[in-house]
Design brief:
five-stranded mixed β-sheet
């Protein structure tokens, strides 16, 4: 039931009670109240009740309208806030979707890039396997690495070093020969022992590992023996008293250094210096620095010689210059004598002649 209806019913009930009370009082006091006045009294009471009910309803309606207006504003604000929140959420969702699509595209590109790199690595790995499985290709690979390091260290082919494989009859000659300014030579040979080491690393059997280890050790000893001939170390041919054995793989070089101490010591006793890529680069830079220092020293000697020659020539020049100065001074003195004394005597003689001949003006 609505509030207005409750109010009306309440007023009617109250009015009925009042009317009943009036009638009751009228019956009990007949002497005081005329029964003919009862309709007037009821009409007055009814009018009052209607007026009271109308005022009450009007007040209630105003309160309801005010409350409804407030609720309407509150609902409108709520709807407006909800609409704004929905709009912001939609924007965030759209941005998140764009970011998700962008991330997905970026991820797809990365996956495609990794796929290409994997394919390239696979091809490179396959090519490297072919190189490492072929003894001749391994040798060429080692020579190429050595030459690249020579060039990186500032050595110029044909001037600072020679690649002996380009020369005829070089089967027993070192791969590279560095020429120092004083014509001393340093021989370098590149060796790539790999096959038995590969088998050693891939083998799972302990006995097989020991067998391959001994074979690999023998490979290194054979390489050392190959570079201890007079084609590599020959002071009579103006070589230094050692040879560099270049191993173009740092892992193999480190394995030899760590596991084959006796072989390493034997190589040093035989004047064979084994070097991996890092140590070979350090050796080359040291040689290059010595090469430059020798050039500077040689140039310094030449400059000192030129200075001494200049000093000797300057002394001779100075002596001759002094002689010229002395002659100039003598000539100047002679000139002053002629210009002074002799000129005056001549002028006196001329004056006498003029006086004697009567030509004096």
């Amino acid at each position: 039931m609505e509030p207005n209806q409750l109010i009306i019913i309440s007023i009617i009930i109250a009015g009925s009670i009042i009317i009943a009370a009036v009638i009751f009082r009228s019956g009990s006091k007949k002497s005081q109240i005329d029964s003919s006045n009862i309709p007037n009294i009821l009409s007055s009471v009814t009018d009052q009740l209607v007026t009271l009910a109308s005022e009450k309803l009007e007040t209630q309606n105003r309160e309801i309208r005010t409350d409804m207006h407030s609720k309407k504003e509150a609902i409108e604000n709520l709807v407006k806030n909800l609409a704004q929140e929905i709009y912001e959420n939609n924007r965030r969702l759209e941005k998140a979707e764009r970011d998700r699509i962008g991330s997905f595209n970026s991820l797809q590109r990365e996956i495609e890039s990794h796929r290409k790199i994997t394919e390239q690595l696979s091809a490179t790995t396959e090519g490297l396997k072919k190189v490492l499985s072929n003894n001749q290709l391994r040798g060429q690979f080692g020579e190429q690495v050595a030459e690249d390091l020579l060039k990186m260290s500032g050595f110029v082919k044909g001037i600072d070093y020679e690649f002996n494989k380009n020369q005829s009859g070089s089967q027993t000659r070192p791969d590279f020969t560095i020429s120092l300014p004083d014509k001393t030579k340093i021989n370098i040979d590149a060796k790539f022992p790999y096959s038995n080491l590969q088998k050693l690393l891939e083998s799972e059997d302990k006995n097989s590992k020991q067998e391959y280890f001994k074979k690999f050790e023998q490979d290194i000893k054979d390489k050392i023996k190959q570079v201890t001939t007079r084609d590599y170390i020959n002071p009579d041919d103006r070589t230094v008293d050692f040879v560099i054995l270049f191993i173009p793989n740092e892992m193999i070089f480190s394995f030899i250094y760590d596991k084959l101490n006796d072989t390493w010591a034997d190589a040093m006793n035989k004047k064979v210096i084994m070097a991996g890529p890092f140590s070979f680069t350090a050796i080359l830079r040291m040689i290059r620095q010595s090469y430059d220092n020798f050039k500077y020293q040689e140039n310094a000697h030449r400059i000192i010689s030129l200075i001494k020659n200049f000093e000797s020539e300057f002394e001779k020049y100075n002596a001759e210059f002094i002689k010229i100065g002395e002659r100039i001074n003598q000539l100047s003195s002679q000139y002053e004598k002629v210009d002074g004394t002799r000129t005056r005597q001549l002028m006196k003689t001329i004056d006498r002649i003029r006086i004697g001949s009567g030509t004096e003006t």
